[in-house]
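Possible regression after last week's pipeline update?

I re-ran a chain I had predicted before the update to compare outputs. Posting the input and the new output here so someone can diff against the archived version. Not blocking, just want to make sure nothing changed silently.
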Amino acid sequence: MDKTFASAEAALHDVGDGAVIMSGGFGLCGNPENLIAALHRKNVRGLTIISNNCGTDTKGLGTLLANGQVKKMVSSYVGENKTFERLFLGGQLEVELNPQGTLAERIRAGGAGIAGFYTPTGYGTQVAEGKETREFDGKMYVLERGLRADFTIVRAWKGDRWGNLLFRKTARNFSPMMCAAGKVTIAEVEQLVDVGELSPDQIHTPGIYVQRVIVGAGYEKPIERRTVRPRPRSEGAV
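New output (post-update):
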């Protein structure tokens, strides 16, 4: 039952060229930093990556993109990455854009064994081109397929050796759904705790969905775009 691996490289040992990888994270929040860095060092090519976005030019999944490792992105938001824009417009990157809720549901459906579902989102737009449509109760819907991946990589706040995971706040984002949708799920945890320390009511992802666990280190946790309000001037200030 002990699913821990000594390093990110060891946990990614069978990831090869052409793999389909789901990666948790929303912007740079919740990125599996150690696993992404290990994929960069491994230099596997022709990857299809399913993730909300592709990080920035120099952070997160953007490092794999800049290194020429990514063939296709299945994403929802891509607005913070100039490398992404350049490669896409130059025909060097295949992109499958999804409405954000549709992307989340496609991942959830894939993990639940659901082949496809109908949604009204995107009907009448480019999103629906080439897809089956159907009317229900006087409203048009688009058929979307569930998503699966060869590997899922996520970062959890806490986890145990059996693979039970607890995510923290917004770093949770897509990760629990992705854990269910990957054939092999690899989780890096900020804190590895003893089995039984996590209350069953706290666990976001049961260990049955996780095959490999590593302990992460050296987290940078960068902020994608820092926006702050000016401080109000104190009364009497000149």
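Follow-up from reviewer: compared with the archived run. The mean pLDDT is 94. Marking as no regression found.
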